[in-house]
Amino acid sequence: MTLRGRFRHWLENRLPRRDSWQLTQRNLYILPTRAGWGFALTLLVMLLASINYQLNLGYALTFLLAGAALVSMHQTHGNLRRLVLHLRPPQPVFAGEPATLEIVIDNPGHERHGVGLGLYGSALTALRDGARGLAHCDVPALGSSIARLQMTAPRRGRHALPTLRIETHFPLGLFRAWSVWRPAAELLVYPAPEQPAPPLPAGEPAGEGALPVPAHAGGGEFDGVRPWRRGDTLRQVVWKKVAHSGALVSRDMRGSASRALVLDWQRCGSGGAATGLATSDPEARLSRLAAWVLAAEHQGLPYALRLPGRELPRAAGDAQRRSALQALALWQPGPAGGGPHPGEAGR
């Protein structure tokens, strides 16, 4: 690791993890930019020339420009001082998809210009961010603004958010003021659904009181239809028949109440629907199960999820989809070949 990399690593580790970050003199840094160093060298040459040729106007111009640079340094530092950053909780995404981080910048003072937010140091190489540059915004006086950053997590699981930096070069670009922020929030990444997704597996015999599912859950036609009733969800409406007849009709699932849809880990690696799936690859199984969860949710079917070491009871709706995808994202192999993620124990 280079000296610069060691310094960044030391700086990141000494910072506390917080979802709110107030910029003060204790955590704001400022140094000249390349343009600033070039400007300082120009002033030095002008001063030497004025001394050598005894140019009074040269003295005046040199000290005037030096005074402007000092005022610029003060304004650059003040452009960030007292700002408060708040991170909104990031929404879960699928592996390989960009996740959007929304940072609210609150301004208790005068208007701020050219405030930039981006990933800091090692975060640029640890994660494939969608835009390596800075997201710039202006913050109104006594108001707030929102900056959005994108990052991509290639693997499923729960990931700590990367270290962020906020900086500005306003007003003249001669100085760079910045601060480093480590958010405490985490990003939940679901397994990437298998593409193309295979048909849903056939239902299993359901016990008394089990929720019914269609016998042709694999994507074929449903057993029948009935007139739409109050309480039917939009996913139960058979839109193809609505387009032809103009009357609202819903899926009739009474004829298949004896079978229940179970998304089983063991059934991912064998059998017709699993042709071509590597049975020894747990990530491929999780991707297939994720695709089946989305397919069942799209069709409005109640389903159960069965993983080694964990099982979700049969249910339907957005809550079931989130619970199933979270279980797939956090599942880790256990000593006996499968088990829940350590963070899920006891939940």
Structure, explained:
This protein is of the alpha+beta class and 347 residues long. It has 2 domains: 137 residues, Immunoglobulin-like; 128 residues, no CATH class. The chain is 27% helix and 27% strand. It contains 7 helices and 19 strands. β11 and β12 form a beta hairpin. α2 runs antiparallel to α3 and α6 runs antiparallel to α7. The C terminus is likely disordered.
Task: Give the secondary structure arrangement, pairings included.
Layout: H1 3-13, E1 20-22, E2 29-32, H2 34-53, H3 56-78, E3 84-87, E4 93-94, E5 98-106, E6 112-119, H4 123-126, E7 128-129, E8 135-139, E9 144-152, E10 157-160, E11 164-168, E12 175-181, E13 186-190, E14 204-205, E15 225-227, H5 239-245, E16 249-251, E17 259-264, H6 282-298, E18 303-307, E19 310-315, H7 318-330
Parallel strand pairs: 4-13, 17-18
Antiparallel strand pairs: 1-3, 2-12, 3-5, 5-9, 6-8, 6-11, 7-9, 10-13, 11-12, 14-17, 15-16, 18-19
Helix pairs in contact: 2-3, 6-7
Summarize it.
27% of the residues lie in helices and 27% in strands. The chain has 347 residues and is α+β, with helices and mostly antiparallel strands.
User: Which fold name corresponds to the CATH topology of the largest domain?
Assistant: Immunoglobulin-like
Total discrete domains: 2
Total strands: 19
Low-confidence stretches: 124-131, 208-223, 270-276, 340-347
Transmembrane segments: 28-51
Organism: Pseudaquabacterium inlustre
Keywords: Membrane, Transmembrane, Transmembrane helix
Protein name: DUF58 domain-containing protein
Provide tags for this entry:
alpha+beta, Immunoglobulin-like, 5-stranded antiparallel β-sheet, 7 helices
